[in-house]
Amino acid sequence: MSQSSFPANFLFGSATSAYQVEGATAEDGRTPSIWDTFCRVPGKVLGGDTGDIAVDHYHRWRDDVRLMADLNLNAYRFSISWSRVQPTGRGPAVQRGLDFYRSLVDGLLEKGITPWITLYHWDLPQELEDAGGWPERATAERFAEYASLVADALGDRVERWTTLNEPWCSAYLGYGSGVHAPGRTDHTAVLRAAHHLNLAHGLGVQALRASLPGRAQIGISLNPAAVRALTDEPEDLDARRRIDALANRIFDGPMLRGVYDQDLIRDTARLTDWSFVEDGDLENIHQPLDALGINYYTPTLVSASADRKLPRRDGHGGGAQSPWPASEDIAFHQTPGETTDMGWTIDPTGLHDLLVHYHRETGGLPLYITENGMACDDKPSPDGTVHDPDRVAYLHSHLSTVQRAIADGVDVRGYFLWSLLDNFEWAYGYSKRFGAVYVDFESLARTPKSSALWYAQVARTGVLQAPDTAPQPVTD
Ligand code: GBH
């Protein structure tokens, strides 16, 4: 491998999720998910935005697949809307829901684009939340049934499977800070939810293995925190240890090692005795995986709470309550450096740390960056083209970090840019743009930004192009 080229067969993809792009929330038998409900609670989503229409991918998927092909992408990571294929979260599948995904998959395969399915990207069927949601064990059991149903329908043509996207967000933002659906604020529920998400993953892996042919590759996408301590003082290092336990080891401990670490159990003892972990759960969660997906945006900087010079930040999304259980005495800081339109510091070194760490932790499992990208305040020029040099620089620095990790011996097999399209950015509604392709939220017209054209060159040549070689977008 020359310095600037990626390994052969490297996946250059892009990613989206169902609720963020599909729209058509009441069509073909789909019922509400927790996000449909949450968007209707006043004040929860900026501007009162909803995913009702989103970017209409449900109807425009053919155009979107063509767009990916034109951009030379060889993989597409998307998620299945649970309430589209199994409206109550239980029982038989809705054929029309499955048909949508089957057509999408066939459309991708026709263009030589590898479909990569995420089964759960935060949109729990509302009926399952009404029955208690992720803090309840039954939700994990329902997830395994849903996983087999999708595997039975699509397993003859899809080889890449991800159980959950970022269970940290589902548990901590959904049940802790309440800035995501279902908007609960209960730190004990966070820990119960985390465990049942872990169990859902483990039971889901087993359900997938039972339904899929042996060549299927199964994994999960985590959003591990690259946690740093503000100083090397013991109390800051201890804050680092605690946030590492709550951000990372609470998920990868049971999944990769079959344990919840003792320090995590001790740190959270005043909230729970962890009796919701039943006999056999850890074995069920600890399933062999074929790949691990890492979603990375920015590092996390913590200290013990004493006043420090660096500005504090609320740590995740501006909720009134912290997402972190039993961590009131820990301060979160803004990492130094330039920030994106989300206010997240641009620092690819965190990605390198995580890749090296998970290479070791998994004994050399194939790793994929299943999300990476930045929000910019993109605006079309008068001629209709969209120039986003900051995003090109971000992608370049992170892809270059991926190459460095590969040179260091880490087995990285692919990269998925978040996101293909500008879309519904959760609590921020349509106010934040992560797309490589610009979407006019009125007309829903798509226009590749200069970053998309730059990334297309990387995907076509397998060589990391300099950021200043971004081709100028053209309009017709
Ligand atoms: C992903 O979540 C999602 O999978 C995707 O759906 C979403 O659109 C995308 O990212 C962009 O948001 O407050 O400075 O400590 C990422 C969620 C982002 C949560 C980074 C933790 C830490 C930022 N994570 N965040 S900070």
Automatic annotation (TrEMBL):
Which keywords are on file for this protein?
A: Carbohydrate metabolism, Cellulose degradation, Glycosidase, Hydrolase, Polysaccharide degradation
Question: A Pfam family for this UniProt protein?
Answer: Glyco_hydro_1
Q: Name one GO biological process term.
A: cellulose catabolic process
Residue ranges annotated as transmembrane are none
- Positions contributing to substrate binding: Q20, H121, N165, Y297, W418, E425, W426
GO cellular component terms given for this protein: cytosol
User: What is stated as this protein's family in its record?
Assistant: Belongs to the glycosyl hydrolase 1 family.
Question: What protein does this entry describe?
Answer: Beta-glucosidase
Q: Which organism is it from?
A: Streptomyces taklimakanensis
